[in-house]
Automatic annotation (TrEMBL):
One of its GO terms (cellular component) is ribonucleoprotein complex. The keyword RNA-binding applies. InterPro entries: CAF1P_plant, RNA-binding_CRM, YhbY-like_sf. It comes from Hordeum vulgare subsp. vulgare (Domesticated barley). Residues 38-81, 136-158, 389-443 are annotated as: Disordered. The keyword RNA-binding applies. GO terms for molecular function: RNA binding. This is CRM domain-containing protein. Residues 71-81, 143-158, 411-420 have a biased composition (Basic and acidic residues). Residues 161-259, 281-377 form the CRM domain. Keywords: mRNA processing, mRNA splicing, Repeat, Ribonucleoprotein, RNA-binding, Transit peptide. One of its GO terms (biological process) is mRNA processing. It comes from the Eukaryota.
Length: 443
């Protein structure tokens, strides 16, 4: 009787512990009790809450935002004194072809607020087009003529005196593949606006830069040479096939190069009229269908390689028209946009009439009013590219031989300076005039 009462009393005197459901078993085994220094008192708790209430709330750090080229901030728009209209491509987009609409709104490819010129959907003009007068005889304002004159004077100042034969051969040899890897590739888009900046970057390290041309622009190499010299202000001192050597000039200073704002994306191409119409002018619907069937069965004049060199295509088509009225060019493997651009160039340069682009073939017709005498005159007025290249190689060999001869050094040097002073720009201007004025319109 005594033992149960003692056990009951000991159980009542045992200290009360918190419920053990959420405690660890280690507390039961070792009897751990935290020291008094680790248990906060009521005064400390009240003081801590008061300090937290009186303290200012910490501002939250804004999330990380990666830098964007479109975010201009308060910086002003860039200004460029280049006296020509900024376009995406200077060799592919023709000023004569007027679009009938735009595929998207007029978003500037330079980015919002980055350029002080307005974007018209096709170009960023150097002169405001609203200044044109309808009643004036010359629709171009006087500001455009002043820009052209200032542009010509600046180019002559930078180029300086013409190169001697020895200087020319030295620069050409310095820019060859076995001497340097610096090269600019001109592809299917032609001479783009951002490529101008690349050319000036190459001119920092050397007086000349090698330009390799392939694809659609090589159909009209004279236009490529003219645009290169016109937009960069340089001079082409050597040409072999699609390889050009572009000289920067005697008085060119890299730190005084023009400001060229870069395009951040390619603008959408406008909508142009259809190239292939339902009926060809002067023919009925049945005659047009028969001509397209006949063109698909005609013999192939040539097969174009992808990203090839097409400089001899125009004289080949002209020669093909001497025997056949229809010419077929095989374009299998080429992108659709490429052989359409080639067809447009053939229409303007040969000239001819586009018949069909079916089954990756370019079929062109010489027209009813075809005259062989006109073709012969065009052959004489604009010599073939192969003849120009062979003539250029012969001239360079003659220049080297005359420069090495000591007997007639004075006379030869005077004659060579006169020859080298005539640059590619004058030749291109004359060739463009002959190809645009002497060619009859397609009717």
């Amino acid at each position: 009787m005594l033992l149960p009462s003692l056990l009951r009393r000991a159980h009542l005197l045992r200290p009360c512990h918190p419920p053990r459901r959420h405690l660890s078993r280690l507390l039961d085994r070792y009897g751990f009790v935290p020291p008094a220094s680790l248990t906060p008192t009521a005064k400390e708790i009240s003081h801590g809450t008061g300090a937290a209430a009186g303290q200012k709330r910490r501002t939250k750090k804004p999330p990380y935002r990666p830098p964007s080229s479109l975010d201009r901030g308060d910086r002003p728009a860039s200004h460029s004194d280049l006296p020509f209209d900024f376009r995406f491509s200077y060799t592919e987009s023709s000023l004569d072809a007027k679009p009938i609409g735009l595929r998207e709104p007029k978003y500037s490819p330079f980015g919002p607020g980055r350029l002080d010129r307005p974007w018209t959907g096709l170009c960023a003009p150097a002169v405001d087009t609203t200044l044109r007068s309808v009643d004036a005889e010359d629709p171009a304002p006087a500001a455009e003529k002043d820009l052209e004159e200032a542009r010509r004077r600046e180019r002559e100042r930078v180029l300086g005196e013409p190169l001697t034969p020895a200087e020319r051969s030295f620069l050409v040899e310095k820019c060859q593949k076995n001497r340097t890897k610096r090269q600019i590739n001109l592809g299917r888009d032609g001479l783009t606006h951002n490529m101008l900046n690349d050319i000036h970057n190459h001119w920092k390290h050397g007086e000349g830069v090698r330009v390799k041309c392939l694809g659609v622009p090589t159909v009209d190499m004279q236009n490529v040479c003219h645009e290169l010299e016109d937009k960069t202000g340089g001079l082409i001192i050597h040409r072999h096939g699609g390889q050009l050597i572009l000289y920067r000039g005697r008085h060119y200073h890299p730190k005084k190069r023009p400001v060229i704002p870069l395009m951040l994306w390619k603008p959408a191409e406008p909508i142009y009229p259809r190239l292939i119409k339902t009926t060809i002018e002067g023919l009925t619907v049945e005659e047009t269908k028969e001509m397209r069937k006949k063109g698909l069965h005609a013999s192939v004049l040539t097969k174009l390689a992808k990203n090839g060199y097409y400089a001899s295509l125009v004289p080949m088509v002209r020669d093909g028209f001497l025997t056949d009225e229809l010419v077929r060019i095989d374009c299998k493997g080429l992108p659709k946009s490429d052989y359409r651009k080639i067809g447009v160039k053939l229409r303007d340069l040969v000239p001819c009439i586009l018949v069909s682009f079916d089954k990756e073939q370019i079929i062109v017709w010489r027209g009813k009013d075809h005259d062989e005498s006109i073709q012969d005159n065009m052959h004489k007025a604009s010599p073939s590219v192969l003849q120009l290249e062979s003539a250029g190689v012969k001239n360079e060999n003659v220049e080297q031989e005359e420069a090495s001869s000591e007997s007639a050094a004075g006379e030869d040097e005077h004659g060579e300076k006169e020859e080298t002073s005539s640059d590619w720009s004058s030749f291109d201007e004359s060739s463009e005039i002959s190809s645009s004025d002497e060619v009859p319109d397609d009717k």
